[in-house]
């Protein structure tokens, strides 16, 4: 090789390598803390292993803030490709015709392998059209469970309650033994009305809980739910129940031992595993109200899904589809499930978790899956699809808080909640009438 050719070769070797520009996908989510770290890690791992795509993961606040930010961004033409929306925003997203790109359609049109049967039926049924098309990809799905302080129950000789009568009796015994506020819960509309109703095969509204049309009306002020709320109200008067806030605000009551029974999402597992070190916690199925049903039906999910928004470059949607497929992989879903307590969205991830011995080393962590899969869902237990449901939950919260404060009877609170909520349904129906 001549000197000039040697010099040229050396110059080429020393020159900086120019990376091929990757297609960027914007992903907005509502996961804070440890959950946000794992969510961001999924995006980073996908980007690192993909030659032509990169996903930028951004925390946009709580569920309501994230959904509202995405809606505002869409109106301004600055929307992300993917946005995480909680389950009560489903009807609102469905009504935004032209704004959403149904996930199943996305997968088909981008040629990305997709098998709907691979997903747990109880998880995806909430997010399908009447024709069965999947609209958004379940990401963090959970179900409410009964968390309990196993150490304290063993100490007091209290059996794990399976019914509401047993829970009330156990709370009374714990109160006598000095437990400050034996029972509490969070996300009260979701746990004490929506899931209580599904668990006992009761409708929350007409028209198949809103799945069959916008002209639905609420019926959760029926005698069974009224009696249930009246029971909790009575437990509060006796010092057996203490209200601790609308979302997960009462979590500290359980962690510090103030409450030994707590109904809330299965997704608190990861945080409890980190924060509870002085005693043993466990979870079991939600209690059954034997005055209403002889056996439970099934629970319904909470959490959120990933919605794809239209209006971006066509070529970018292939990367979106591949990222969603990546999140659905058994290894990733099993890791998410085992680390957080959220339900795995695929059968393969559930089976992998079992093969890895997770349910043996961490007993009870499959409780939410068992609840969701207990029976074939009925029209009463498939889920809910109500317009303006974010605002409606605020109404329900206000009325239940009036009941806990003793300002209204259970019937007065629920009757008013239904009346106010139906007005919001009519506003949604009028705005989206065809």
UniProtKB/TrEMBL annotation:
UniProt keyword Cytoplasm present = no
List the InterPro entries hit by this protein, alphabetically.
Bact_solute-bd_prot1 (IPR050490), SBP (IPR006059)
Coiled-coil stretches noted in the UniProt entry, renumbered to this chain = none
Superkingdom of source: Bacteria
CDD domains referenced in this protein's UniProt entry, alphabetically: PBP2_UgpB
- Similarity comment: family membership: Belongs to the bacterial solute-binding protein 1 family.
Self-association and partners: The complex is composed of two ATP-binding proteins (UgpC), two transmembrane proteins (UgpA and UgpE) and a solute-binding protein (UgpB).
In UniProt terms, what function does this protein have? Part of the ABC transporter complex UgpBAEC involved in sn-glycerol-3-phosphate (G3P) import. Binds G3P.
Q: What is this protein called?
A: sn-glycerol-3-phosphate-binding periplasmic protein UgpB
Could you tell me which species this protein originates from?
A: Paralimibaculum aggregatum
- Upper classification of the organism: Bacteria, Pseudomonadati, Pseudomonadota, Alphaproteobacteria, Rhodobacterales
